[in-house]
């Protein structure tokens, strides 16, 4: 596990260099920019930092869904429409700008990703009172309960907006190291999916309707990744004894990491922006590190 520091002056980089960065990401390293390559206008940062003081209904994580250009996570009672419009515009611009940076930066992937949600995280992470499975301060790999990825990778890009404080993470050994420690002994390996609905989807694809059929159903891969997320958070022995590598991301910095591979926990920090990408498995430059490859090898069968 390493934090690979990249200076903005290194960009744009050669195709060999960017391919190496992709390979490092896929292997479980964090790519880190001490000075963010996606800077927000200072007035936008000031607005975001002021939300918590000026409007008590804007306390939660705020999500932006680029596919429908909508924000959520706000109380229905919020009536300050000017503030909502400003927030919406800031999130829309952030999502667009991160996507545009990633297109220029991760050239080996050739945009083979789906732009997922962006989020603003205004709350102090230290001592947050959340139900166990939603806690951010326990080491876990990411899986989305309602948005199965079917083997696509979860890549996340972050900005620490806090004017002075670091965002404090610990990360752990990557999925390819952890999974064999717990599966199949403590957590059942996935089996191939033979359900009728999947058979229907396969038939639909065969007759050219594939893209019209929503893939909201979890694959055996997605089921395992969700169970693994819960298992890690609920496993006190793992939380106590896992290798932990601390990382402190300073004010004004950015970093990106495959959070489905790298167990991570946020111990402290406030005010972060984040954009998620679902990167096609076919785009991987080092697919041997991906959870899908690791699991399919362990299970001896296709899982998506
Ligand atoms: Fe996470």
Give unreliable regions as ranges: 204-214
Bound molecules: fe (ii) ion
How would you write the strand order of the largest sheet? Answer: 1-2-9-6-11-5-3-4
Q: Provide the succession of SSEs.
A: EHEHEEHEEEHHHHEEEEH
Number of strands: 11
**Residue share in helices?**
25-40%
Q: What fraction of the residues are assigned to beta strands by DSSP?
A: 15-25%
Number of helices: 8
Helix- and strand-based class? alpha+beta
Average pLDDT number = 89
What characterizes the major β-sheet?
A: 8 strands, mixed
Judging from the principal axes of the Cα atoms, what is the shape? globular
Distance between the termini: 28 Å
What is the CA-atom radius of gyration, in angstroms?
20 Å
Topology (SSEs and partners):
Elements: E1 3-5, H1 15-27, E2 30-33, H2 42-54, E3 62-65, E4 70-72, H3 81-105, E5 113-121, E6 153-160, E7 167-171, H4 175-182, H5 196-206, H6 220-234, H7 236-241, E8 245-249, E9 254-258, E10 264-268, E11 272-279, H8 291-299
Parallel strand pairs: 1-2
Antiparallel strand pairs: 2-9, 3-4, 3-5, 5-11, 6-9, 6-11, 7-8, 7-10
The structure holds fe (ii) ion.
What does this structure look like?
The protein has helices at residues 15-27, 42-54, 81-105, 175-182, 196-206, 220-234, 236-241, 291-299; strands at 3-5, 30-33, 62-65, 70-72, 113-121, 153-160, 167-171, 245-249, 254-258, 264-268, 272-279. It is an alpha+beta fold and 304 residues long. The strands form 2 sheets. An 8-stranded mixed sheet has the order 1-2-9-6-11-5-3-4, covered by helices on one side. Helix 4 (175-182) runs parallel beside helix 8. The protein starts with a strand and ends in a 5-residue tail after the last helix. It binds fe (ii) ion. Fe (ii) ion (FE2) binds next to loops.
């Amino acid at each position: 596990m390493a934090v690979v520091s990249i200076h903005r002056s290194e960009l744009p980089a050669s195709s060999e260099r960017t391919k190496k960065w992709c390979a490092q990401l896929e292997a479980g390293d964090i790519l880190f920019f001490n000075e963010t390559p996606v800077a927000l206008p200072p007035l936008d940062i000031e607005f975001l930092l002021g939300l918590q003081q000026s409007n008590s209904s804007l306390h939660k994580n705020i999500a932006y869904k680029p596919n429908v250009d909508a924000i959520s996570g706000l109380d229905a009672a919020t009536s300050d429409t000017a503030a909502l419009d400003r927030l919406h515009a800031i999130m829309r611009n952030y999502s667009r700008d991160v996507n545009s940076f990633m297109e220029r930066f991760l050239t080996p992937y050739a945009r083979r990703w789906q732009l997922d949600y962006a989020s603003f995280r205004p709350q102090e992470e230290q001592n947050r009172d959340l139900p166990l499975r939603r806690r951010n301060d326990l080491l876990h790999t990411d899986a989305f309960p309602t948005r199965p990825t079917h083997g696509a990778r979860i890549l996340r890009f972050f900005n620490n907006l806090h004017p002075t404080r670091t965002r404090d993470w610990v990360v752990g050994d990557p999925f390819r190291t952890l999974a064999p420690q717990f599966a199949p002994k403590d957590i059942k390996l996935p089996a191939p999916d033979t359900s009728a609905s999947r058979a229907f989807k396969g038939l639909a694809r065969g007759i050219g309707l594939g893209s019209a059929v929503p893939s909201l159903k979890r694959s055996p891969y997605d089921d395992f990744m969700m169970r693994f997320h819960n298992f890690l958070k609920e496993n006190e022995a793992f939380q106590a004894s896992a290798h932990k590598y601390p990382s402190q991301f300073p004010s004004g910095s950015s970093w990106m990491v495959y959070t489905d591979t790298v167990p991570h926990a946020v111990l402290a920090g406030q005010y972060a922006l984040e954009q998620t990408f679902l990167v096609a498995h076919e785009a991987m430059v080092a697919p041997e590190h991906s959870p899908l490859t690791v699991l399919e090898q362990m299970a001896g069968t296709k899982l998506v």
